[in-house]
Amino acid sequence: LAGVAAAALAAERAMPPDRIAWARPLRPGDENELSILGWDADTAWVAIEMGGPGMGIVPADKLAELPSRALDGEMVRRASVDARGLERVVPSAEAHMRARSLARIGASFEILGAATALTDLAVRYTNDREQFGRPLSEFQALQHLLSECQVDLAALSSLCDAALEEWSANGASELAAAAKSLAGRAGRRIAQRTLQCMGAIAFTEEHAHHRFARRIHTLDAWFGTSSELERELGAAIRANRRAPHGIEIWHPGPR
Question: In what order do the strands lie in the sheet with 45-49?
């Protein structure tokens, strides 16, 4: 995802995108401490989101790693850097928006995968586990929870597919934002419902639930959170009086 988000910068500087990590300041306006997505042994450069147009870029060997505070410490790392050494780059606005849209779509698909895995775990658990002499899957309350998970998965899958199709046709900035917003919201709901279905075992470190739940919450925080994107889309709809292509809006009729 980091290389996807940095594709415009990579093209501008003739860099391989898979060697660029993506970062943002831990505190707005202070680029000395960063939260970094996709930083590994092969990373050569780190692109940094900054206020205003453009972004910062710094060689990866200038970073000093700090203990990660992220829910998913394997995915997001933390580092300090001397912000005075940052180079500011302003890639094409259109190319940057397309790269950011594709990163949002990619994050949405990854959340979809994690949420699907959680639902599969819960389905298997409720089929195998018995209580009061019958499988948990026969209890209506759990059936409702799992049915709601499937509804969210179906909606998210359709929207992700639509956003990717639109992006491939040189559009989709609004659909990409809608997909990312729904992914964060639906993914967190599914994580909570499946936790309820599996009960105490899913709270433990040895159970797989937390791995997928951590990934969902972490991805929701990058490239716009579900709540941030909802507000942005709502403001755009109010200003333009139209919905993104492929999405219908209900208009109340006259009383």
Answer: 64-66, 76-80, 30-37, 20-27, 45-49, 55-59, 87-89
Domain-embedded: residue 206: yes
State the pLDDT at residue 93: 87
Whether 142 and 173 share a structural domain: yes
Tens-place pLDDT, residues 163-193 = 999 999 987 689 999 999 999 999 999 999 9
Nearest to 57 by CA among 97, 95, 94, 14: 14
Q: Provide the token pair at 139.
A: 């209890």
Based on the domain organization, do 106 and 177 belong to the same domain?
Answer: yes
CA atoms within 13 A on the CB side of 163: 28
Are 44 and 59 within 8 A, CB to CB? Answer: yes
Q: pLDDT tens digit string along 221-242? A: 999 999 999 999 989 888 887 7
Residue segments in the chain with a per-residue pLDDT below the cut of 50: none
Number of folded domains in the chain? 2
Task: In whole angstroms, give the CA distance from residue 186 to residue 48.
Answer: 28
pTM of the model: 0.91
Rounded Cα gap, residues 238 and 183, in angstroms: 22
| 63 lies in some domain | yes
Residues 141 and 234 in one domain: yes
